[in-house]
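FORM 7B: Structural annotation worksheet

SECTION A. Query
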Amino acid sequence: MGSPCASTEDCGGELICDVHDGQGTCQHEHGHGTHSGEEDAEEDCAADTRAEHYAVGLSKSGSLVTASFVSADPAPPIRGDNSWVLSFSDADGAALDDLEITVTPIMPDHGHGTPVSAEVTPTGVPGEYRLDPVNLFMAGYWEITLDIALADQQDSIMFGFCVD
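SECTION B. Predicted structure
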């Protein structure tokens, strides 16, 4: 396991050739189908029922906070750097300011995140924050968790996207 490969035939037995960015390693199947290339990973991801469809206004709620997409550049999210603007409100719809937000993108099927940290800055509009860059460096299913600190309380919201 972990040895270089060009196709699944190079791995033999129960392993697949997991190819990303032109380099393959023999791995156990981990949720995106048997494949020997990035195109197959994209096809498997497009059918992933965990992925949400991006749209302006897409919202998720935690126990205290609701996060809603105001914009994404590009839209929908793509492989590489993304810039998102989200609005944050309480259960009554009131804008929330003075939040501490940590952005954590991970690929759960691969067990890794991204080496690039997103900076979170207020936009000047009440309750709105820019997250930039949200680095989704490879094709596949990503879960982006927003850990939110509000005064002395904590909340967490997760968005899941398939990126090409």
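SECTION C. Observations
The helical segments are 38-46. The CA atoms of residues 11 and 26 lie 6 Å apart.

SECTION D. Sign-off
Analyst initials: ____
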